[in-house]
Specification:
Blueprint (H helix, E strand, L loop, with lengths): L7 E5 L18 H5 L8 H12 L2 E4 L28 H26 L7 E8 L3 E2 L2 E2 L4 E4 L5 H17 L5 E3 L10 H8 L5 E8 L3 H17 L3
Parallel strand pairs: 1-2, 1-3, 3-8, 6-7
Antiparallel strand pairs: 4-5, 6-8
The structure holds zinc ion.
Zinc ion (ZN) binds next to loops.
């Protein structure tokens, strides 16, 4: 018997290191920065695609580098713009927001609203990221981070189930909650939690480290199994 999945969507805020031609002069001499983890999350698109395929749901993929405008920060946050765009005239920063930020953020928010409009099961939003295993000279002892709000019972239960299923498949992995970042830090899922209550929305960020590509299949299968318990 096929158990239906809960309504869901997958997003990749840091999938791209592209910079549209109009803004490229700002990045002259900063090619290394753009190619680094500061510019994008390598592997996050592939993970997002695999999750969306398995769960049979919509996928939102950022088209531009986070160094242009950071889709995972709220308006007014000091990291919304990077050191390459922060000093731009206000009209140009507004253009960046209107062309590359709000369409993405509003698109995701509308998709969540649509998926929860009928009062059925909550919408599961998975936001795929990757992190560099070495940060500021220290090696991070985490293979997979599941980031959520511990005050939201559904998010907590879902992540526990996902972790248990993943560890059952891959006992070698270090799966951590709210590492290397906190799920309640400013971000797209945190913003959406403010719009949708626990009964309607689960916002989970998923961050993979070095072992990434090799564990993608197990990660996706465990997620699919955990998601079925929401329906
Ligand atoms: Zn990221």
């Amino acid at each position: 018997m096929t158990v239906p999945s809960a309504p869901c969507l997958v997003t990749c805020e840091h999938a791209s290191r592209e910079v549209p031609a109009r803004w490229r002069p700002l990045f002259a001499g900063h090619e290394e920065l753009l190619a680094s983890h500061r510019g994008w999350d390598p592997g996050s698109r592939e993970l997002g695609e695999a999750l969306a395929r398995r769960l049979g749901c919509a996928l939102f993929v950022a088209a531009t580098s986070r160094l242009l405008v950071e889709l995972n920060r709220s308006p007014g946050h000091p990291e919304l713009f990077s050191e390459l765009t922060r000093e731009l005239p206000e009209a140009e920063r507004t253009a960046l927001l209107e062309e590359h930020y709000f369409p993405y953020r509003h698109g995701v928010e509308t998709a969540v609203a649509e998926r929860t409009a009928d009062g059925g099961p909550p919408c599961l939003h998975l936001s795929a990221h990757s992190f560099t295993p070495v940060w500021e000279g220290r090696c991070r002892e985490v293979d997979v981070g599941l980031l959520f709000d511990p005050a939201r019972p559904r998010e907590t239960a879902f992540c526990r189930r996902w972790r248990d299923l993943l560890e059952h498949r891959r006992p070698d992995l270090a799966v951590r909650f709210n590492e290397p970042y906190l799920g309640v830090d400013d971000g797209l899922t945190t913003h959406l939690r403010g719009r949708f209550p626990d009964e309607r929305y689960l916002g989970i960020e998923l961050a993979g480290g070095a072992a990434w590509a090799a564990l993608r299949r197990d990660l996706v299968e465990a997620c699919d199994e955990a998601a079925r318990s929401l329906a």
